[in-house]
Amino acid sequence: MTCVRDRSVLTVILDRPRSLNALTGSCRAELLAALDSATDPAVRAVVLTGAGRAFCVGQDLAATDELAQADVTVRDTYNPLVRALKELDKPVVAAVNGPAVGAGMGLALACDLRLMADTAYFACSFSKVGLVPDTGLSYELVRRLGHARAYELAVTGRAIGAVEAEQHGLVNRVVPGESLVREAAELAEQLSRGPGLALALTKRLFTAAAHAGAGAMLEREALSQGVAAATAEHTEGVAAFREKRGANHDGGPVTVPAVVPLDAI
């Protein structure tokens, strides 16, 4: 795992290019530690990408011992990665530079935003080795695509190219491969200069909206708005609007009050 800090943006690079960034137990532990380091108040946005020609092809099947008790492996080492991405109160941008397969697809979909190289693809390929989707894919695919499309992708394991992924709303934008890193960095930098608390509250709202009822969401919105409206970020945003200039946020630490609950999958 390689982590690079550029001002307030942390770039986390899955760094096993010879194995297409396949995940081993040690790799998953390093990734979890990297995501934990992103809670540093100085970090305001995160980019997740892969080294070499792949984003991540999922579980390293050469690590056969890790599948001897697959339920334990998934519960103890994959699920915490999804939760860490979902619960991080900062925007996470996936720069999908190449194949994102199996758990690699799950990691990408657990991020908040996705930019995808025009040569990259997704594949929910678990069925090809007699396994079932994990790393949050059953949750994400059914909600994004509906039962029929999600099931078709899971049982056939077919590749989804960048254009189709964008058409289905699985990625925010498809970009030429040579400009992916730059565009992901620019997006993360833009987000890092935004109102950090408001972005964190919005992330919590949208995460909860996947399973909460309309009435509950109305109350969550009210709670969150009460917190946001009392901040210096709001005051600066209003002043900037009135003065017809860009807002100048101080980039301070983002701490969400306990009154706003955290909901993840």
UniProtKB/TrEMBL annotation:
Coiled-coil stretches: none
Example GO molecular function: catalytic activity
Domain of life assignment: Bacteria
Gene3D superfamilies: 2-enoyl-CoA Hydratase, Chain A, domain 1 (3.90.226.10), Lyase 2-enoyl-coa Hydratase, Chain A, domain 2 (1.10.12.10)
Record family assignment: Belongs to the enoyl-CoA hydratase/isomerase family.
Full protein name: Enoyl-CoA hydratase
Native organism: Amycolatopsis panacis
